[in-house]
Specification:
By secondary structure, the protein is an alpha+beta fold. It contains twelve helices and eleven strands. It has helices at 4-57, 66-77, 98-107, 148-151, 154-204, 219-268, 276-303, 315-325, 327-333, 353-369, 400-403, 426-436, and strands at residues 81-87, 92-95, 126-134, 137-146, 311-314, 336-340, 348-351, 375-383, 386-393, 440-446, 450-461. The strands form two sheets. Strands 5, 6, 7, 8, 9, 10 and 11 form a seven-stranded mixed β-sheet that branches. The protein has a four-stranded antiparallel β-sheet with strand order 2-1-4-3. The longest helix has 54 residues, at 4-57. It starts with a helix and ends in an 8-residue tail after the last strand.
Length: 469
């Protein structure tokens, strides 16, 4: 499998090579076209100059003077052009034919290497014709033929060679630059990716404390780094929660079993009498153990996402029923207990009745458990398409550090709260049930001042509709 660095290097280098080749092709093509245009202009100029001299020498007859002949011969030997002057009947008057030009090219010793037979004849041959006109009358024709390959002068050839040399140098410089840029870019991209990959490997090994701290200026890589670090934090928190869960479950199970074992051994040894009081104490521990297992079973059912039995119900009716269930508890605790639901008269919600009552029961039980004096209350209000149910107490509160873990399994906050009996999964069940009903639970708490839990549920209607009981 090819590494990312090698793939990126090959990609950048290949892209640079393709760009260089395209630029070279464009430059060569443009230069070739410009040279062809340049040659055609020169040939046309030669033809026009000869035609002008023929017109100037015309005295009723076409006369080819020595100056014109010398001009034709010069272009024949130096420029390698075949120039032929014809009369108006297309009869050759004076000049050099293509055959003469081919022979001259083979005789020319300026060419560095001998040419094979028929080589010149196989080359492209271009011929242009300029009419010699005087008073709108065609007197003669000047034909100029040439092989483009041999029409270049030494200066032209040198210039073209310099251009090609410059192109080659540019190609080398560009390729070298492309290699350096490719190395830099591949390192810039691959180094943080490799490091983040190492971080994921460390997480897979269970090293949840590992973090990649080097920030990147590339948005996508920085987002990936943040996601991996955030995942590491969550895994570390989950690992700590898991360890605490195991510890708490072990403690919760061990305590009633230890009490049972100690009391039974004392009865067997005759230390404790086998009477009704001892039996009731043992029964209490069995019930406590059974309740813990029952709550764990409930949590398992909630986490397995078993569907709720949703139905349209009157919110105030359900709240009133739950409120009444805790009246005796409020009287025994000698605390103020109130219900304020006037803002949600006839409000209909789509909930699982048993699940909703379990949520409220858990919240109210905790409110009374952690409030020694003061008040516990239920209040409702409507915000937009949601109804908000507040369960408020003036109890011991929850410190800020524990608030983000309060809905985790078996979590019961700081050590001061561990003196209160309970399995630590009631709030976990409450939150998961609320989510299954399309809602959510939030809390606000200040240590020593009290706690408020807010249940948000979507509203079906605020009008009276027929409710199925």
């Amino acid at each position: 499998m090819i590494s990312l660095r090698k793939q990126m290097f090959a990609l950048f280098l290949g892209t640079g090579l393709i760009i260089v080749m395209l630029v070279r092709i464009v430059i060569n093509t443009t230069m070739y076209y410009e040279f062809e245009t340049y040659l055609e202009s020169n040939v046309e100029y030669i033809a026009m100059s000869i035609a002008n001299k023929v017109v100037g020498d015309y005295n009723g007859n076409i006369t080819i003077k020595d100056t014109v002949k010398q001009n034709i011969y010069s272009h024949f030997t130096v420029s390698k052009c075949a120039i032929m002057i014809q009369d108006d009947k297309r009869n050759n008057i004076y000049g050099v034919s293509k055959t003469d030009l081919v022979a001259e090219i083979y005789r020319d010793k300026n060419f560095s290497a001998p040419m094979p037979p028929d080589f010149v004849d196989s080359l492209e041959y271009i011929e242009i014709e300029i009419p010699v006109i005087r008073n709108d009358e065609i007197l003669a024709y000047v034909q100029v033929g040439y092989f483009p390959l041999f029409l270049f002068t030494i200066e032209d050839t040198d210039f073209q060679a310099k251009i090609n040399s410059s192109i080659h140098m540019t190609v080398l410089i560009t390729m070298g630059s492309s290699i350096l840029v490719a190395l830099y870019l591949t390192r810039m991209f691959s180094k943080p990716i490799y490091a983040i990959s190492e971080a994921s490997i460390e997480l897979a090994k269970g090293n949840y404390e590992y973090r990649y701290l080097n920030r990147s200026k590339i948005h996508e890589i920085e987002t990936l780094r943040y996601s991996i670090n955030n995942l590491a934090e969550r895994l570390e928190e989950e690992d700590q929660t898991r360890k605490k869960l195991i510890s708490d479950v072990s403690h919760e199970i061990r305590t009633p079993l230890h009490v049972l074992q100690s009391n039974l051994e004392a009865m067997i040894d005759g230390i404790y009498p086998t009477d009704e009081e001892q039996m009731l104490a043992l029964h209490k521990e069995v019930v406590r153990f059974s309740t813990l297992l029952s709550n764990l079973d409930k949590l398992k059912g909630v986490e397995s996402a078993e569907p709720c039995e949703l139905a349209h119900v009157n919110l105030n009716k359900e709240l009133t029923d739950v409120y009444n269930n805790f009246n005796i508890k409020a009287i025994e605790s000698e605390m103020e207990y109130n219900l304020n639901i006037t803002k949600t008269v006839n409000t209909i919600v789509n909930i699982d009745t048993n699940g909703f009552r379990q949520i409220m029961t858990n919240l109210l039980s905790n409110a009374f458990k952690f409030t020694h004096q003061g008040s516990v209350g239920i209040r409702t209000e409507i915000k937009g398409k949601f109804v908000i149910i507040e369960v408020k107490d003036t109890g011991i509160g929850i410190n800020k550090e524990d608030q983000k873990y309060i809905f985790d399994r078996m979590y019961r906050g700081d050590k001061s709260r561990e003196q209160y009996a309970g399995s630590g999964i009631g709030l976990t069940i409450a939150k998961k049930l609320a989510v299954q009903m399309g809602g959510e639970i939030f809390l606000q708490s200040k240590e020593g001042k009290g706690t408020s839990f807010y249940i948000h549920l979507p509203i079906v209607s605020n009008e009276k509709i027929k409710i199925k009981h």
